[in-house]
Amino acid sequence: MKLCCQSRYHLWRRSAGKCDATDLDAGGHCPKVTMAALLSLDALELFAQECTAANISNDGLKAVIQRLLSQQRKALAPEQQQIRMPLQFDSTESEVNFHALAGCISTCAFGYESLLQTTTQQGLRDVALFGVMGLYLSGQNLDNACLAALTLAEVGEHFRIPLRSMQGIAVMPGVEQLPDHPLKPLAERVLACLHALADGSQQRGFTTFGGFLLHASKATAPEQPSAVGLRNALCTSFPLVFEEPLIETLADPLATCATCVVDTCFRRFRQQLPDHFNYGDRARLPAILDHSLIVKLRKLHVLDVTEAASKMSLETTLTTMRVLAGLAVARICTELVTAPDLIAITACDVDFALRSIPEGQHDACSH
Q: Which pLDDT score is estimated for 73?
């Protein structure tokens, strides 16, 4: 799985052509590596060749492609991916803010999907959506002041994330102590993200995160909205929220959270606010490589974990699978664009269509 210094260097030279040997640090990392270089198909393919923790099943890929072409074809069209909520907003900024916060929280943490499903019967996306909705319906206007004042207890209540285990531990006769729930770190991460978004937006002169997005979507590309430009603006302006370390051998962010926010705004506002979110370069966005996509691809028999994974840390294995999930979606996209009516299909469209495959129908894709 590890890429040697020379492999990383030549990978970077092929992808971007701007990095000299002197730019590599002691660990062989190049701080100049851009997102586009890292997430290029060549980069992902090279990583997959050296990966031992997991692999992509070609048979699984073929079955999924056939399923998307035959039964999920409509889900590939952006017009079928509209996000609508039965809520009233007092301004466009307020609505953008709502959806952006939900998109951010839905991908702000990694590794909790299975535990969330077991504990709450919901994935992180549903937890995020209903949590932000709960805050909004409780009378909160979700501006910087509101987010900055939130407490951990309020996050636990509105997002329905348990902070304490129900089974106590006896500390003395007749006295029990409730230990922290394994999901408490998720609630802490949600709270930290909301506080960071409030602080960052306030420092830049905006009263809401949505206000920042409306400004940045025009400032990064005045002539035509740029998905990559907006995503990079988020990573630069809110590094504590949107920059995620990839894996030590590649040392660059996946920007999953930022990609989710950018694509959420496209799917909800591309028609209502085309000057802000109808991107001309959406095809350059990777899939949203969160835990739920990995779970979906495993259920569809596209991703397989090998025995070698047992000798690696869970974090390394999961991060590796995120990279392979990005490659799997890229391969699917490459096949689908050969169909005349799908020539404009993007990785985010494939991502959405994969998630729309109903539970209980995954095995049908493997036969």
A: 86
